[in-house]
């Protein structure tokens, strides 16, 4: 019996001493007006001993006021001249530095949601005037908050709801992954003989448009037909709720754009609809392939319904302004050639504008297009999708014709602008991604950073990864990691035309047993370069992250 209790005690001590990387889940409230002081509570895991905050030069000062379990109290003093926007902060704890969480600075005064529930028209929160902003929370599953307001006939109002617990992921993730995907609904009283308190839904928005990787915050513009009293309902799209489901609500007069920005897509993402296809495209790709040889300048041609003949490499510029409009272009190859056809949509982009091309061979037969057909990963059913880039090998000499149109014959607009670049393939490295957000490394410990990259257009060189500006006593070497073998998907179609070959390597960071313990986080730089013919090329991608060295337990 004594042996059992001794073993149990040792196991309990080991569990108690297990170090957990600090992770912030949510902050409430997370929005403050410039020139004011915001008192917020941060929830997470591994936040024991939080003593400071990394602000990265944000226009505010943050002071840790106290800790209650896994909740950290912050006082955020926002400068009066702070520019409205989102500013990431990180907590510095006994377990190291945490992930980022944004503090929102607003030009509007923030009001806290009153105590109690507000799930009916009788308990709705009255909105006395506009513009107005509220910080609230959906504290339990199935909860909804109602706000009551007045509007005049012909008046347009903007309603915006920003989540404090976001998750940008695939469709339906709110049902399986804890996250707050907010939804807005506007009701007007429309009592009936059966129910005098009956409400009629007149407007709804989950997000302006759902696209993978884009924010799921709600933004609703509505023009009211009648003067009267109305209700606004706030809820989670999947009916979730809890202590992390915080939100910031803005109501203003007029039609205002979203307060958030979409961000700039990486110029190295060959598969993006919005990357720039300019006259120096070939030279830039050659550089990403570790080559400095001279590349031809890409000539630009205006698109039209007439099938003009162009010389490769060429960029075709046009706009499908009318429904059913069709553009054509011809080019000639005198010998077998590996080519790439790439779309850029500088105005409207999918899913609003969906440019489609067909490549016709010398005999008029269809050779290729930008529709990828294969079995879906979730259902296994056949799916089709438009791709921004298509690569293929032309083995027959002769004249080829490209036809460009909108995927549906019903749509056309002035902002349906496109660039279609037709060029020789250039082997290069595409998108590079580092999976690390912060590194907390104990003395004598090693951690792995996964680095994935795309081999585009048959790139066969190597990729070098390194870590720069490391603290004393920290080393970094590239290595290999085990990856479970996956069964090949069935009926994948011509996947090689539309997807790059993705590979993964690892960067191993190791702390010496006597490495100096960090008093504050130090920023390190992760770097990737191509290696061709024994020569390293220009930097492909970088990522700067904070790192802390911790004492061994």
State the separation between the terminal residues, measured CA to CA: 29 Å
Shape category: flat
Radius of gyration over alpha carbons?
Answer: 28 Å
Portion in beta strands: over 45%
Overall pLDDT score: 89
Helix content: under 10%
Structural class designation: mainly beta
Q: Summarize the biggest pleated sheet.
A: 5 strands, mixed
Q: How many domains comprise the coordinates?
A: 4
- The tally of strands reads 40
- The CATH level-2 architecture of the largest domain is identified as Sandwich
Give a short synopsis of this structure.
The chain has 553 residues and is mainly beta.
Structure commentary:
- By secondary structure, the protein is mostly beta strands.
- The protein folds into 4 domains: 18-106, Immunoglobulins (Immunoglobulin-like), CATH 2.60.40.10; 110-253, Jelly Rolls (Sandwich), CATH 2.60.120; 281-426, Jelly Rolls; 430-550, Immunoglobulin-like (Sandwich).
- Helix content is 5%, strand content 47%.
- The chain contains 3 helices and 40 strands.
- Strands 2, 4, 7, 8 and 9 form a 5-stranded mixed beta sheet that branches. A 5-stranded mixed beta sheet has the order 10-12-19-14-17, with no helix packed on it. Strands 11-13-18-15-16 form a 5-stranded mixed beta sheet, with no helix packed on it.
- Strand 25 (355-360) and strand 26 form a beta hairpin.
- The longest helix has 16 residues, at 2-17.
- It is flat.
- The model is unreliable at 1-16 and 262-267 (pLDDT under 50).
